Amino acid sequence: MNTLFTPTSYGSIHVKNRLVMAPMSRNRATEYGVPTQMMATYYGQRASTGLIVSEGIQPDVLGQGFINSPGLHSKEQVAGWRMVTDAVKKGGGKIVAQLMHCGRIGHPSLYPSAHQSIAPSALKAAGQTYTPAGMADFPMPKAMTKTDIDLAIKGFAKAAKNAIEAGFDGVEIHAGNGFLLHQFMSSNANQRTDEYGGGMENRLRFTREVIAAVIAEIGADKTGVRISPANPYNDIQEDDTLEIYTALVEKLPILAYVHIMEANVRDVTESLTKRLKSPLILNPHCRAEDGSVSGAIASDVLEKALCEGVAFGALFIANPDLVERIRDNGPLNQMDPSTLYGGDHKGYTDYPTLGEGEVAA
C-alpha cells in the first residue's frame, strides 16, 4: 500500500492520510478579516486530505499585510472561522490555523487600519506590492520596541486560543517566507543591537518566545511551526542557514510537527531531519525544475522516510479532490492563475471533482 494513503499523527492530531494541504493565501475574507461562507465551502471541498493548513491568518491588527486576508483577533473572525472548521469536520478532515504576522511586508492602503508596518529594524524590504493605486514599494516599517515585541507575542498566544475556540485542531506558527519571525532570524532584516539582534541566539529569541507563548496557551501537542531555510522570498538573506536552523530545531520541544517549505536545499532538510524530535511535514522542492509537488514526488520522500506528511500547494487549488485523483491516477484540472487572489467563487469553489465535468490533463 502506498504510504501516502496511510494514517499518521501530528501530536494529538490524528489524520487519515499523509497528504497535507499547504497554506495558500486566497484573499477572500471581508474587508475586516472575517471568513465567509464561500471560504467554508472552499475548505470543506478539500476535507479528504489528511490535514489542511489554513491560509496565513493575522494574529492581531498589526500583523495584516494583505487586502482581504483573514484574522483571528475578533469575535466576528472567530465566528467566521467556526463555519470553516465545521465544514472541514463535516467532511471528515482536520485543519490547523496558520498564524502569520507579516511584519514589514504590506502597505497601509491594503487594510482598514492603514497602519505603519512593524519590523525588527527600520529597514524597507526590497520589492513591491499591488495596491488600489497600482504597484507600490514596500514602505518603511517602524522598528519594534520591547513593548511592541511583547504585544506581538501576546497576540500570537491570544490568536492560538481563539483558534481552538473556533474549532481548529491546532495552529501552525509561520516562521518563514520573509514574514515577521523570519525577519527577526535573518541577517539583513534584523539590525538590532539589543537582546533580539546581533548574534544567532539573539536573532532566534523572538521566534522561541512566540513558540513558548503559544504552547503555554494551547499545548505543544497542538502547536506546529513552519520554516523555510534559505528561502529569499520577501527580501530575506541568511548568512548562516544551516547553523541557525540547527540551533532552532535542536532546542525545540516536541511539537505536533515542524513544517519545512523546502527551497531547493535538500542537504539542509536532511541535516535538520536528523535533529528533529517532532514529526516533519515537508513541502518538497529538491530542485527548482521539479515544479509543483506531485504524487510521485510525495511518494518518493515518504519512501525515503524523510518526513511523516507531504504538503501539496498549487495542485490543491484546482483539484479539491486531489487525494482521490492521486490515488486513482486521475487527470488533473488546470489552475486559472488570474483568479488566485481575491474575487468571487470563480477559480475558487467552482473547480469540478472527478466525474463532475471537463478536466484538463
TrEMBL record:
Residues 338-361 are annotated as: Disordered. Residues 4-332 form the NADH:flavin oxidoreductase/NADH oxidase N-terminal domain. Pfam families: Oxidored_FMN. Gene3D superfamilies: Aldolase class I (3.20.20.70). It comes from the Bacteria. PANTHER family: NADH OXIDOREDUCTASE-RELATED, NADPH DEHYDROGENASE 2-RELATED. This is Alkene reductase. It comes from Enterovibrio qingdaonensis.
